[in-house]
Amino acid sequence: MSEAPSSPAPQDPASKDPAPQPSGSSGSETCMGCLILLGICALIGWGVDKCGGGSDATSTDTGTSIISSTSDSSSDSSNTITSGVGDVVKDGKFAFEVMSVSSGDPGCQCGPFITVHVNVMNIGKESQLFSPVNQYLYDASGSKYDSDASSSTPEFGEEINPGLVTSADLVYAIPPGTPLDHIELHDSMFSGGVEVNLQGQP
Asked: In terms of C-beta density within 10 A (0-12 exposed, 13-18 middle, 19 or more buried), how is residue 29 classed?
């Protein structure tokens, strides 16, 4: 009879190879990775913060533009010419009143003319020279016309004393059928001027 095979002897658990333990260098690498990750997070947070600041700046600029646009619109509205024929307007030392507007040849052979009849009063404390060459006519397209000094009166201007009034005929050569818009009147070539609506005239 053959003998039964003997079963293998049980191994002592202590004799097994011990589980590998992390080495000291591996732990250092892990710590270094954590520090790098924290640094990246800090940079991302800083970048987001900066982006947020840029967004606020853009919003502020937009608000400023809107305010500027509103101001410009309001300014345009305030520049609407409300004064017309028969109204008294002032610029510097002079008060002007456009009495009427007529068309036709005032005597010069240069072409068709528009004549603006204006009363000019010195409202200042000193005499002031009124000159037709400082008065400008505008048509509906925005074209600007100088007066015809040789046909206008007073031809060479007039020194007006305080409280006195003079009558002026301002003559302009313009193409026939040109629609008028306004006249710009000045007490001198350096003044801001004042506008009188001439739409529908003469």
From this structure: exposed
Strand arrangement of the beta sheet that strand 165-173 belongs to: 88-91, 94-103, 113-122, 165-173
Token pair, residue 31, equals 């710590």
The two structure tokens encoding residue 45: 């947070």
Joined tokens for residue 135: 């008065």
Q: Which of 91-95, 124-128, 175-179, 184-188 has the lowest mean pLDDT?
A: 175-179
Helix (H, G, I), strand (E, B) or coil at 107: coil
* Cα dihedral value 171, 177, 181, 183, nearest 10: 0
Residues 198/183, Cβ–Cβ less than 8 Å? yes
CA distance 44 to 42: 5
Give residue 51's pLDDT. Answer: 46
Strands 113-122, 128-130: parallel, antiparallel or unpaired by DSSP?
Answer: unpaired
For 76-90, give one letter per residue: b (16+ CB within 10 A) or e: eeeeebebebeeebe
Cis peptide before 10 (omega within 30 of 0): no
The yes/no answer on whether domain 88-197 falls in CATH 2.60.40.1240 is: yes
Question: Could you tell me the pTM of the whole model?
Answer: 0.60
